[in-house]
Amino acid sequence: MDFGEWGVWTSFRQIGEDRAAEAAGAAEAAGYGTFWLGGSPRLAQVRRLLEGSEKLVIGTSIVNIWGYDPEDLAREFHELEADFPGRVCVGIGVGHPEATSDYKRPLSAVEKFLDGIDAAPRPIPTDRRILAALAPKMLATSARRSLGTIPYFTSVDHTRWAREQIGPDADLIAELACVVDEDVERARGTARKYAEVYLGLVNYTNALLQHGFEQSDIENGGSDRLIDHVIPHGSAADIAAAARAHREAGANQVCFQPLGGEGIPAADWQALAAAVA
Questions:
Q1: Which of 16, 64, 96, 172 gives a 20 to 30 Å CA spacing to 131?
Q2: What 8-state DSSP symbol labels residue 168?
Q3: 1 inside domain
Q4: Structural domain range at position 131
């Protein structure tokens, strides 16, 4: 799929599902190639995003395997594909052990789920699905059984290492939360509020500890070093430089998640698009 070099990432918690079409139109008008919908949506919920745009690729980041039957997911994909051919990418993931009581043997669970998709009457093609992956075995599975991977809340060092793991041909889509705000302390406060939940999830903290950070960086809401690197802030140009670092490290696409505002962050999307143009 042609995702383009830059995308946006948001959830209905941020923009409101009733404004989905408006949000998709704003992202497309700003020049982005892909709109990634987070918050563990049902795949059918992306229909409004597709209806609100003409060519925008819509991806999920991610549908959660613990809440889905793989045959149902495949059926929902083909219902959307019939109306919007070539524009849906199914991002699939296992979530986090802290959030899912059923969470166990995640790699085996993903393999079983993908087997279920492949056994469906109409499977989701390998080149129309992508996996959330942070660790080596899941990254290997992502390259073998999907387009590649969509890591979240990661460092540039992780992006570089993940590219080595998946090889040159698989896709690597890096999410980049950011704060378009040149007041340093206010921006760090916004970033820390967002980071709080992720610094309490072992999947993310393990990835940070293995790729550039120490335990002291994780504690007490995150060190300035960690916050500034993982959630860059400042002018749109400052954030564009951080995004380019992920691209130079091997990301095919960087998708921006501006923080700090309410509703559709259209102005931030436009500013960031202009900065990377």
A1: 16
A2: S
A3: no
A4: 6-276
**Measuring CA to CA, which residue among 106, 13, 122, 4 is closest to residue 64?**
106
**Omega before 62 cis (within 30°)?**
yes
Q: Tokens at residue 111, please? A: 């393999």
Q: What is the mean pLDDT of residues 87-94?
A: 97
Residue 225 lies in a domain: yes
Classify residue 38: in a domain, yes or no.
yes
With beta carbons less than 8 A apart as the criterion, state whether 231 and 225 touch.
Answer: no
**Does pTM top 0.85 for this prediction?**
yes
Query: Which of the 8 DSSP states describes residue 181?
Result: B
Say what the alpha-carbon torsion angle 170, 138, 111, 148 is, to the nearest 10 degrees. -20
The CATH number of whichever domain residue 13 belongs to comes to 3.20.20.30
Distance CA 82, CA 70 (A): 19
> Can you tell me the mean pLDDT for 130-152?
97
Number of independent structural domains in the chain: 1
99 pLDDT higher than 60: no
Q: For residue 257, which phi and psi values (nearest 5 degrees)?
A: -125, 90
